[in-house]
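TICKET: design request
STATUS: open
ATTACHED STRUCTURE:
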């Protein structure tokens, strides 16, 4: 059903889904959200559309800096989805064919989960599905 490829590089998205010009000063390798201008995992759907996945593999703290990084990451994904290049390559995004999926460490701060619920309405207003999936981790 999906052709999956990863984009965990310091380059921006492909030309078709470029997020304006990423500011690589936003790179923070030690942070749970290290790259703001990169789609962590992009799964392309047969028949059009795709899932843009955020992967937060270590617990995300609830501090203002982390909340801002998460918000900016989601906003960058929305910018990419709403670009002409995205539509040209993957078709017009709808909630049925396009999703932002956040895979998050379950021991992230509760403030982060509250923020994700607030971001759900922003993503929904952009006519994109939004999923929050806690990662399965060894205790």
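STATUS: resolved
RESOLUTION: sequence designed for all positions
ATTACHED SEQUENCE:
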């Amino acid at each position: 059903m999906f052709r999956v490829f990863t984009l965990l590089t310091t380059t921006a998205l492909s030309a078709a889904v470029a997020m304006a010009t990423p500011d690589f000063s936003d790179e923070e390798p030690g942070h749970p959200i290290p790259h703001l201008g990169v789609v962590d995992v992009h799964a392309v759907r047969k028949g059009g559309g795709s899932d843009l996945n955020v992967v937060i593999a270590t617990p995300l703290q609830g501090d203002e800096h982390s909340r801002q990084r998460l918000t900016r990451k989601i906003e960058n994904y929305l910018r990419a989805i709403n670009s002409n290049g995205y539509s040209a390559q993957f078709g017009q995004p709808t909630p049925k064919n396009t999703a932002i999926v956040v895979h998050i460490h379950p021991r992230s701060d509760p403030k982060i989960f509250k923020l994700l619920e607030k971001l759900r309405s922003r993503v929904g207003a952009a006519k994109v599905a939004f999923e929050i999936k806690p990662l399965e981790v060894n205790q």
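CLOSING REMARK: Confidence is low (pLDDT under 50) at residues 1-21. Residues 17 and 83 are 7 Å apart (CA to CA).
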